[in-house]
Amino acid sequence: MNITTSFTRRSAIAASTIVLAALAVVPATAAAAAPSTSASVASVRIAQTPSDVLASTPWKTTSAFDQNGNRIALDDAAVSNFVGWAYFDADGTYTMYNLDDSPKLQGDWTVTPDGSERWINAKDADGNVLFQRVVPITELTKNVFTYRVFPNAADTSVYYDIVHTRTNHVEPGTDGRGPGANGDHGNGDYHFNNGNAR
């Protein structure tokens, strides 16, 4: 074996080793540089607006308190008109029911971008607006929604906080298939009670 042949073989082996080493490193480096899709999706959280939070779940009226923090019975005349089930849909419409699942109100709703107020109107079966109401929101989380009502709008020292909690109560008339599954918000036979505006 001459020196030239020996040198050529060693050079070829060394070059092959370098190429193989480089190939082994490149895929590992590329994999490390590109995070997996599931990891990147899991790390992205989309902030919910107050409107998103209100529309995220059905709500049940569970308690009421006066301006002194005293609990008020839900059948007390001062708060009973605000008691029931509420379903705020992402399309800006809502339906409300009494706790016996009888229809109460339907209409449109909005929440201010800062979550400080909720506006609703109430509509009859023909879409005519019966009334509108704005209430201050005192708490809005994924589990609790509380708003404040004033018996006398001119006297803000007397008020009631109406507390709602997240529920899984299926909207009446929908058979668990979502709003309006059986027609226009259920059976379409709404009994509007202006005094029950929430």
Succession of helices and strands: HHHEEEEEEEE
> Order of strands in the sheet with the most strands?
1-2-3-4-5-6-7-8
Indicate the overall shape: globular
- Please give the count of helices: 3
Termini separation: 100 Å
The proportion of strand residues reads 25-35%
* Biggest sheet record: 8 strands, antiparallel, barrel
Radius of gyration: 31 Å
| Class based on secondary structure composition and strand pairing | alpha+beta
**What is the count of β-strands?**
8
Calculate the mean pLDDT score and round it.
78
Helix content: 10-25%
- Extract low-pLDDT stretches: 3-43, 179-198
Short description, anyone?
By secondary structure, the chain is α+β, with helices and mostly antiparallel strands.
Structure characterization notes:
The structure is a single chain. The protein has 198 residues and is of the alpha+beta class. The protein is 22% helix and 29% strand. The chain contains 3 helices and 8 strands, in the order αααββββββββ. An 8-stranded antiparallel β-barrel has the order 1-2-3-4-5-6-7-8. A hairpin with a 5-residue loop joins strand 3 and strand 4. The longest helix is centred in the first third of the chain and has 31 residues, at 3-33. It is globular. Mean pLDDT is 78; it is low at 3-43 and 179-198.
Architecture blueprint of SSEs:
Blueprint: H1 3-33, H2 37-43, H3 50-55, E1 59-66, E2 85-88, E3 93-97, E4 103-111, E5 117-123, E6 129-140, E7 144-149, E8 160-166
